[in-house]
Amino acid sequence: MDLSELERDNTGRCRLNSPVPSVCRKEPCVLGVDEAGRGPVLGPMVYAICYCPLSRLADLEALKVADSKTLSESERHRLFAKMEEDGDFVGWALDMLSPNLISTSMLGRVKYNLNSLSHDTATGLMQYALDQGVKVAQVFVDTVGPPETYQERLQQCFPGVDVTVKAKADALYPVVARDQAVKNWKFVEKLQDLDTDYGSGYPNDPKTKAWLREHVDPVFGFPQFVRFSWRTAQSILEKEAEDVTWEDSQTGDQEGLRRIKSYFSEGPRPRLPHRYFQERGLESATIL
């Protein structure tokens, strides 16, 4: 899997995909959606789709690639290479969401929680397959949150597709992509004596916690490899980093700002824009 695009910029979202097999534009296809890396405090989260004609589903199942958690990293890469050889009937696409994108979304002024980010990413990949001409007839999705609610939402988005949402083991494509991304992660920060033995990356792993404590800067915090919105990372910041006090740059009456008593004076009260427009810096257009 070529991750050169991610290596050029791993601060946002990266989409990778295979060519669409011609048979997938002619025959009804089954498509699966799954993720890897939802829980770790380190590294990206990856969502992926894999699809093939219903008539070739038995050939895909014969590879025994469904339960990636039971496979070693080398076995996953071997099976992935085998599936790449079957590119005449198997297609895939994935979105890789960087730790920086995840944390800034969750901690932004307008909150975008992990479930919403996951739902929208999965929906976007399904729509991508349809836009590429894949004749999607059936979809199987690993659940995020209550499966009934998630399935109803997806069925409304794709009324012509038979959607099934349920909990299942991790699929191969997102796990292999995350394996490779974490292993070859390009740190944008200039770190000295960087230790790349992070452990599993999960918050309860002692080796991961030790790596976080070792690589927290008292002023600038963590490298962008870390999901700083995770509670584990926040706890280490509170203990190891310097406190920051935000103060107003000016005191007293500031030019251009009204005194509070002006809001109670005679005459029409000033009408402030709705919070939606204030948070996005939007102003009314005066010239069209």
From TrEMBL:
<dbReference type="InterPro" id="IPR001352">
    <property type="entry name" value="RNase_HII/HIII"/>
</dbReference>
<dbReference type="GO" id="GO:0043137">
    <property type="term" value="P:DNA replication, removal of RNA primer"/>
</dbReference>
<feature type="binding site">
    <location>
        <position position="34"/>
    </location>
    <ligand>
        <name>a divalent metal cation</name>
    </ligand>
</feature>
<comment type="similarity">
    <text>Belongs to the RNase HII family. Eukaryotic subfamily.</text>
</comment>
<keyword id="KW-0378">Hydrolase</keyword>
<feature type="binding site">
    <location>
        <position position="142"/>
    </location>
    <ligand>
        <name>a divalent metal cation</name>
    </ligand>
</feature>
<dbReference type="InterPro" id="IPR036397">
    <property type="entry name" value="RNaseH_sf"/>
</dbReference>
<dbReference type="GO" id="GO:0046872">
    <property type="term" value="F:metal ion binding"/>
</dbReference>
<dbReference type="InterPro" id="IPR023160">
    <property type="entry name" value="RNase_HII_hlx-loop-hlx_cap_dom"/>
</dbReference>
<keyword id="KW-0479">Metal-binding</keyword>
<feature type="binding site">
    <location>
        <position position="35"/>
    </location>
    <ligand>
        <name>a divalent metal cation</name>
    </ligand>
</feature>
<keyword id="KW-0255">Endonuclease</keyword>
<dbReference type="GO" id="GO:0006298">
    <property type="term" value="P:mismatch repair"/>
</dbReference>
<comment type="subunit">
    <text>The RNase H2 complex is a heterotrimer composed of the catalytic subunit RNASEH2A and the non-catalytic subunits RNASEH2B and RNASEH2C.</text>
</comment>
<comment type="function">
    <text>Catalytic subunit of RNase HII, an endonuclease that specifically degrades the RNA of RNA:DNA hybrids. Participates in DNA replication, possibly by mediating the removal of lagging-strand Okazaki fragment RNA primers during DNA replication. Mediates the excision of single ribonucleotides from DNA:RNA duplexes.</text>
</comment>
<dbReference type="Pfam" id="PF01351">
    <property type="entry name" value="RNase_HII"/>
</dbReference>
<protein>
    <recommendedName>
        <fullName>Ribonuclease</fullName>
        <ecNumber>3.1.26.4</ecNumber>
    </recommendedName>
</protein>
<dbReference type="InterPro" id="IPR024567">
    <property type="entry name" value="RNase_HII/HIII_dom"/>
</dbReference>
<dbReference type="InterPro" id="IPR012337">
    <property type="entry name" value="RNaseH-like_sf"/>
</dbReference>
<keyword id="KW-0540">Nuclease</keyword>
<feature type="domain" description="RNase H type-2">
    <location>
        <begin position="28"/>
        <end position="242"/>
    </location>
</feature>
<dbReference type="GO" id="GO:0032299">
    <property type="term" value="C:ribonuclease H2 complex"/>
</dbReference>
<dbReference type="GO" id="GO:0004523">
    <property type="term" value="F:RNA-DNA hybrid ribonuclease activity"/>
</dbReference>
<comment type="function">
    <text>Endonuclease that specifically degrades the RNA of RNA-DNA hybrids.</text>
</comment>
<dbReference type="InterPro" id="IPR004649">
    <property type="entry name" value="RNase_H2_suA"/>
</dbReference>
<dbReference type="GO" id="GO:0003723">
    <property type="term" value="F:RNA binding"/>
</dbReference>
